[in-house]
Amino acid sequence: MSFLSWVPAASTPLAAPADDGPGNPWFSWQYVNDNAGTILSKLGFHVGITLETVVIALLVAVPLAVVAYWIRPLTGPILALSGVLYTIPSLALLALLAPLLGATNRATVLIALVLYALLLLIRNALTGLTQVPSEVRDAAAGMGYGRFGRLWHVELPLALPGIITGLRLATVSTVALVTIGAIIGQGGLGDLIMGGFWNNFYRAEITTGTVLCVGLALIFDLALVGLGRLLTPWSRRRVA
Amino acid sequence: MNYFRDGLVWLNDPLNWTNPGGLFDRLQEHLVITFWAVLIGCAIGLPLGIWLGHRGRGGGVVITVANLTRAVPTLALLTILPLTPIGFGKLPVILALAVFAVPPLLANAYTGLRSVDPETKDAAIGMGLSGGQLLRRVELPLAVPYLASGLRTAAVQVVATATLATFVNGGGLGQIITAGFGLGINVGGNQIVAGGIAVVLLALLVEAVFAGVERLVTPRPLRTVRRRRVARPVTST
């Protein structure tokens, strides 16, 4: 079979779709009621691992970005490396980590997620730091700030919008990425999505997982937008 | 490193490549799925991005689309599409992946056309070029580097995400990994690692090939200028 002659429509169905009747609705309160405990625990797992990922990634990424910022020759290589690492497919990363850390281990998923979030955060934090105008840095140095004082009082606050943007990107993609953990039964809401698929294509379970997942991402995103506004009141004043 | 060596040993066995469902079969499935997904993504993302960029509006739409797709888990689309009237098979997998190919193509096409120097456009209009001529002769040639960059991002993303097709038995290299997990970590550990290595190599290869293409289609004078912008569209406001 030639690579180009393949036509999508010609593919043979793998299995008959589940019945379309009322027996398999897209959403069912009955299902949500009956499985409230499971759904809540999966949701809790999802929220927990997302928060853990983002906090760990932030604690590692900001110092790394500062190091890359101080030592200019490192900036290019760090950005290039993070770009290359980011192309590694998530499932492949899980596959390479799972034999080392245990195949049904929560830490396996956590480390994979932290790596991805880390890359997004470093990129954005570094972009934020390098965009601090050199006049501002000179002025701060002229006022007698040392390296750390300048970083803490001038450069990091000015880089905050970039860091918050990175945080939003990292959080939203982490929420979506947690679902991949379903392959080793550690996927939070992804377990619901895959569970519904394997459980004779039970649509209500899939939809519940999906809706909660997207909703969670939106809530986190909005919360971070609010946090950004609280932390950088000057940028709001400038717009107004 | 023991597991890593086991994975390499697995890759070194020719039968693991040529068997039915072996690496060659899975690689072909993977490339076919990727090819069609990127093609569909191009068919939707490029004209839309070029049109919006030419008209000079709709930036909000582009950003919203990009952010929305980021929040939707790939797994959700992969599992939901086969249960719709589309039915099972490769088509829902391809469509699900195409959805994730659209944002980079759309965003880069839009940015590319918007970043054409307004003075250049004024000069072209002053020379009497119509809207269509302006698009074909001035804006598109100047936006080619951005279009190529969007294609590269989309292709790499789809080739990486196509690994997940295995969750719905859609074939591709991910199938090697899930089959390994199915055997259990003690028996299939080498296969899991081997599948992981194969997928990583493929993703890096596609990245390298498209980076080469991007460089080839970028005229020499534009190469230095392009270094100023961020490599990936990572803005979200």
Task: Give the SSE map.
The complex is a heterodimer of chains A (240) and B (237).
Chain A lengths: L28 H6 L1 H35 L4 H12 L3 H12 L4 H25 L3 H9 L4 H31 L11 H10 L4 H29 L1 H7 L1
Helix pairs in contact in A: 2-5, 2-7, 3-5, 4-5, 5-7, 6-7, 7-9, 8-9
Chain B lengths: L1 H10 L2 H5 L4 H33 L3 H13 L2 H7 L9 H25 L3 H9 L4 H31 L12 H10 L1 H33 L2 H7 L11
Helix pairs in contact in B: 1-10, 3-6, 3-8, 4-6, 6-8, 7-8, 8-10, 9-10
| Secondary-structure content class of chain A | mainly alpha
Residue share in helix of chain A: over 70%
Distance between the termini of chain B: 43 Å
CATH class of chain A: Mainly Alpha
Description:
The complex is a heterodimer of chains A (240) and B (237). Chain A has ten helices and no strands. By secondary structure, chain A is an all-alpha fold. The radius of gyration of chain A is 23 Å and the shape is elongated. The model of chain A is unreliable at 1-19 (pLDDT under 50). Chain B is an all-alpha fold. Chain B contains eleven helices and no strands. The longest helix of chain B is centred in the first third of the chain and has 33 residues, at 23-55. Chain B starts with a helix and ends in an 11-residue tail after the last helix. Chains A and B meet through helix 3, helix 4, helix 5, helix 7 and helix 8 of A and helix 3, helix 4, helix 5, helix 6 and helix 8 of B.
Q: Characteristics of this structure?
A:
heterodimer, A: 240 residues, mainly alpha, elongated, B: 237 residues, disordered C terminus, transport (chain B)
Compose a concise summary of this entry:
By secondary structure, chain A is mainly α.
